[in-house]
Amino acid sequence: MRRTRERRTLVALAAVVPLLLTGVAACGSDPGGEGGEVTITFVWWGSDGRANLTKKAVELFQQKNPKIKVQTSFSAYAAYWEKLATQTAGGKPPDVLNVDTRYLAEYGGRGVLADLNQSTGKAISLTDINPELAATGVYQGKRYAVPWAQNTPAMLYDPAAFTAAGADPAKGLTWDQYADATRKVSAASGFAARGATDFGILDTTLEIWLRQQDKQFYTPEGKLGFTADDLRRYWQLAGRFRDAKGASPADVTASYNTSPEQSPLGKKLTSSEFAYDNLLPAYQKANGKPLNVAPYPTDGGGNTGQYRRPSMFLSVSARSQQQEAAAKLVDFLVNDPEVGKIVGTDRGLAPNLKVRAQLAGSAKGADKTLYDYEAALEPKLGAAPPVPPKGAGAIQKLLQRTYEEVAFGRMSIDDAVSRFMSEAEKGLK
Amino acid sequence: MTTVRTPDPPVAPEATARVRRRDRPPGRRRKSQPEAFAFLTPWLLGAVALTVGPMVVSLYLSFTDYDLFTSPKWVGFGNFAHMFTDDDRYLQSVKVTLIYVLVSVPLKLAVSLMVAMLLNTRRGANGFYRAAFYAPSLLGASVAAALVWRALFMGGGPVNEVLAFFGWHTPSWVDDPQFSLASIVLLGVWQFGAPMVIFLAGLKQIPAELHEAAAIDGAGAFRRFRHITLPMLSPVIFFNLVMEAIHAFQAFTPAFVIGGGRGGPADADLFYTLYLFEVGFQDFRMGYASAMAWVLLAVIAIVTAIVFRTAKLWVFYDDAEERT
Question: Model's pTM, two decimal places?
Answer without folding.
Answer: 0.83
